[in-house]
Fold this sequence. Notes:
heterodimer, A: mainly alpha, B: alpha/beta, Rossmann fold, 6 helices, globular
Amino acid sequence: MNLIEITPIQLVLCLIFIxxxxxxxxxxxxGLEKDLIWxxxxxxxxxxxxxxxxxxxxxxxNVILILLLFTFMIFWAAHAIRGRVKEEKVxxxxxxxxxxxxxxxxxTIIVTAVIVQVKPWYTPQYFIPLGGMIIGNAMNAVTIxxxxxxxxxxxQRAEIELAFCLGATYQEATQHxxxxxxxxxxxxxxxxxxTVGLVSLPGMxxxxxxxxxxxxTAIKYQIIxxxxxxxxxxxxxxxxxxxxxxxxxxxxxQMIV
Amino acid sequence: xxxxxQNLSLQYNNKASLFQNVNLTIESGDFVIxxxxxxxxxxxxxxxxxxxxxxxxxxLLIDDKTLTDYDVTQIRRRIGYVQQTPVVFDDTxxxxxxxxxxxxxxSEITKxxxxxxxxxxxxxxxxxxSLDDRALELSVGQKQxxxxxxxxxxxxxILLCDEPxxxxxxxxxxxxxxxxxxxxxxxxxxxxxxxxIDFSTQEITPKTYTLTPNGLT
Lengths: 257, 217
């Protein structure tokens, strides 16, 4: 089966969904019309831009450019996390960004080099989409974990200070919080493991099937993707939560948040 | 353990100073009561001594050495601090009492067994409470005594008490007053307590000060 090429007219036709949604929003006074239209414009612009960038990068096949694009994607993910986690006292952008680069790059390289065994490992057709899926999913895990970390530290200020009064280090005083926070970040990707194939057909598998792949090949890739997402959310959440927790306390084990 | 407060001041976010020029020398074994209306900064003063926060100005000396020269977790263990609102965890009374022994700083102190813990509870009029009871189900007054016992289990040399008797009925209040006096007398534990209500002692005459915005009087 060959993939049906989408013409510009077909793409424009797709806008009918936005027209219907906007009309619904208008009639029900939801006030979402502006966001729907702006979101649509951004979807078109961002994906077209990515399409051109990917075409360019695929042609050059240059390892530095590929890693730069990957870092750029992580930068935007870290930026989105900063926007969603409302925290003013503790600056967490840079440690989050650096931790994300280290953990997600490691997992992506392991997947392409060791598991899928692409040669060379940075072949962009594999490296960028696989890495992108890791970043997208792990971003949600990190957002949930950081949001929960800051709110739990605030809520449990009295308990933490009590532990300090009894001689605890900040690590000892917040051990239980850290456990809860990492768990909270990981639950969505574990839930996804439970329901994949039953409730949802994941995007990558759908894409491969649409592109004409054998469903059995598609599911093998999907299994790799699911497991690498769990690994990267776990590694990312653990590292980032530890690094950011450090910044919530002074050297004298006093709370900053 | 000698404690010196030299020209201590505390100010929050460019507001007027909560207090300034606080000067006081507390010798080992002293019993000090600091009075003052609520909001005068009594609790904040204790937080500075325990290094839960830093002063805006001035210095704290312990045995003639700056407080910041000491390892902070060790010094906090040596300066016990019983906060005004007792904090207990959703766990048994036993595990709440043994909480400090889960921290590295208390690793050299012998962990008390159930008999010792039960004796402590009895001494503070908590004899009807079992070590297996849930700590969250205790009354505020009982939690306050539990918090005091817990702090004393790791042998502090100085004990900071924030309103230790304010939530207690007259009978329990007397017990806590006698017990604090007792540990001050027998174990030579320096007591610094802040309170807005009267605190009576039998054998000793505490050094009593009032905290004002311009220092201790």
